[in-house]
């Protein structure tokens, strides 16, 4: 039997039933990541979505104290200490007839590269905004990544229970600054301490909220706009203002269509408060109606349909020591086509080797359980004995290789010193593991006498995390020595292109983990000066994707 990919099924007599099972599984899956600026409430929203999915019984605030529980998605010790998300996690849960794969990403800008990699595995994205602050720098930056990948974007305006900007102004800002059409799916009734609920535009229904107990679901009261009880429950001025603003929106002319959403041209907008659980449930239900299910992905063999009979997927993240007691290393694999089954043998595209996947894991924050079967849109954890790298493709049948995940230009550079030579074994093991994860980029001096690695990061907090994990996970305290550079560029033509102009001034040449030349500059002026003096030297701010080459270990 032929699949939608044009490939012949080899599933045997029961092949048709298996294909139907796979098609049904793909149809009910929704996969998404949440993007936001720090402190917009991303982790709190994640916890409330898990609460509605029944994955947890009580939601924990990010800054949990005393008897209040810790958040599920922030499992790393440093995350608990600082009350921030600094690593991506995967949370799979069911809601109604749907299976949801929520890719929780770091909100802090210093970990934006981890977020870029996670967005490569996402089918949809939720852009979270603070009602008082509107669009913020990190949100804009991550939006551009979504636009580049044509990821459908949903907007949730958070913290409506606090004083904030006018809803119409927030919607206008998105349209004007991001060039994105907005269609508010619901509209707020009041704001701050007078936030009473929302009006569902599609159903012309009012949803009023009653605050629940701490960490519990809010109570909803639904009624039509014409219900005579409405005037008794909501102040007349709040209701009248919301209805007048809705008239303005209805006259704006934009239509809510799945095609516009899925092409990334229009964003459905929702209003609510994750902390008080106002508006989260209506958002979740509407999102499942409007979001894109797992779709075809670009590969070396063309577009790969999720209903292709053969399994394929790619690694978008590596994480070490999720269980510090066992010093484990886990590869996060996004399933793109076919049905994944425990103990299946797959091909590793980069090395060409055959690998048996005998201990696949379902991920839920730090918690894991053995998974026997997974479908396109799912993310599973694979034990990684140093075999997998970020961007690797695993497949069955004819060879496919998905688009790699590039490295972005770092902005902070420091020598990493190991003050204790007797701990070099642990130092080397930790540095290599963190490089594999992509926690930080590792550069090396071209002088063979200088063996200390150079940590290259987007933000200072990345360096602090590396030091913390080297000491906490590998027992190796380290010392940083900052280098006076702020900009990095890869030399497109490799070492021959770098050597052709002769000696270069006001920059430092180093090599990355794939032995590619990288130039470091103290500032953008030095970069521009070099480009003016040597226009024949092609420099790239994004490292080209590497295939078929093993990285250099410390």
Automatic annotation (TrEMBL):
UniProt domain Tr-type G: residue ranges: 27-295
A UniProt-annotated Pfam family: EF-G_D2
Keyword Protein biosynthesis attributed: yes
Gene Ontology biological process: regulation of translational termination
Alphabetically ordered keywords of this record: Cytoplasm, GTP-binding, Nucleotide-binding, Protein biosynthesis
GO terms, molecular function: GTP binding; GTPase activity; translation release factor activity, codon nonspecific; translation release factor activity, codon specific
Binding site for GTP: 36-43, 104-108, 158-161
Record's subcellular location: Cytoplasm
Gene Ontology CC annotations of this record: cytosol
Function description: Increases the formation of ribosomal termination complexes and stimulates activities of RF-1 and RF-2. It binds guanine nucleotides and has strong preference for UGA stop codons. It may interact directly with the ribosome. The stimulation of RF-1 and RF-2 is significantly reduced by GTP and GDP, but not by GMP.
Similarity-based family: Belongs to the TRAFAC class translation factor GTPase superfamily. Classic translation factor GTPase family. PrfC subfamily.
Protein name (Swiss-Prot/TrEMBL): Peptide chain release factor 3
Origin species: Candidatus Synechococcus spongiarum LMB bulk15N
Lineage: Bacteria, Bacillati, Cyanobacteriota, Cyanophyceae, Synechococcales
């Amino acid at each position: 039997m032929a699949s939608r990919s044009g490939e012949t099924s080899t599933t045997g007599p029961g092949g048709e039933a298996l294909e139907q099972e796979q098609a049904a599984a793909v149809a009910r899956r929704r996969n998404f990541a949440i993007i936001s600026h720090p402190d917009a409430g991303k982790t709190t929203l994640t916890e409330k979505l898990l609460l509605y999915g029944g994955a947890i019984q009580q939601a924990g605030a990010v800054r949990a104290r005393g008897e209040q529980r810790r958040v599920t998605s922030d499992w790393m010790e440093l995350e608990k200490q600082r009350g921030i998300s600094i690593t991506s996690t995967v949370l799979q849960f069911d809601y109604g007839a749907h299976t949801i794969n929520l890719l929780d990403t770091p909100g802090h800008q210093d970990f934006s590269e981890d977020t870029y990699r996670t967005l490569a595995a996402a089918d949809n994205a939720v852009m979270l905004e603070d009602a008082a602050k509107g669009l913020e720098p990190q949100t804009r930056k991550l939006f551009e990544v979504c636009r580049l990948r044509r990821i459908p974007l949903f907007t949730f305006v958070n913290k409506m229970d606090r004083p904030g900007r006018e809803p119409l102004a927030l919607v206008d800002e998105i349209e004007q600054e991001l060039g994105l059409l907005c269609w508010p799916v619901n509209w707020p009734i009041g704001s701050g301490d007078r936030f009473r609920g929302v009006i569902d535009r599609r159903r012309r229904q009012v949803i009023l909220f009653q605050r629940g107990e701490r960490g519990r679901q809010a109570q909803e009261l639904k009624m039509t706009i014409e219900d005579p009880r409405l005037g008794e429950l909501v102040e007349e001025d709040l209701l009248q203002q919301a209805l007048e603003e809705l008239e303005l929106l209805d006259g704006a002319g934009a239509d809510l269509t799945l095609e516009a959403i899925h092409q990334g041209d229009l964003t459905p907008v929702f209003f609510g408060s994750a902390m008080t659980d106002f508006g989260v449930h209506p958002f979740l239900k509407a999102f499942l109606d409007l979001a894109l299910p797992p779709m075809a992905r670009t590969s070396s063999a063309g577009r790969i349909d999720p209903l292709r009979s053969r399994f394929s997927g790619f690694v978008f993240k590596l994480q070490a020591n999720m269980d510090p007691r066992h010093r484990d290393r886990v590869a996060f694999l996004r399933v793109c086509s076919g049905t994944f089954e425990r103990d299946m043998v797959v091909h590793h595209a980069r090395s060409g080797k055959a690998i048996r996947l005998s201990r696949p894991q379902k991920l839920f924050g730090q918690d894991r359980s053995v998974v026997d079967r997974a479908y396109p849109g799912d993310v599973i954890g694979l034990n990684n004995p140093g075999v997998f790298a970020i961007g690797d493709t695993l497949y069955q049948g004819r060879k496919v290789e998905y688009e790699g995940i590039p490295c972005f230009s770092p902005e902070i550079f420091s020598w990493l010193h190991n003050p204790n030579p007797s701990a070099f074994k642990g130092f080397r093991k930790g540095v290599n593991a963190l490089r594999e994860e992509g926690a930080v980029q590792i550069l090396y001096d071209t002088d063979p006498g200088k063996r200390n690695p150079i940590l290259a990061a987007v933000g200072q907090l990345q360096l602090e995390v590396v030091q913390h994990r080297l000491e906490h996970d590998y027992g190796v305290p380290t010392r940083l020595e900052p280098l006076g550079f702020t900009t990095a560029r890869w030399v497109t033509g490799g070492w021959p292109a770098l050597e052709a102009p002769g000696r270069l001034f006001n920059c430092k040449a180093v090599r990355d983990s794939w032995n590619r030349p990288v130039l470091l500059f103290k500032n953008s002026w030095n970069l521009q000066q070099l480009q003016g003096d040597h226009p024949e030297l092609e420099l790239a701010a994004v490292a080209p994707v590497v295939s078929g080459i093993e990285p250099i270990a410390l």
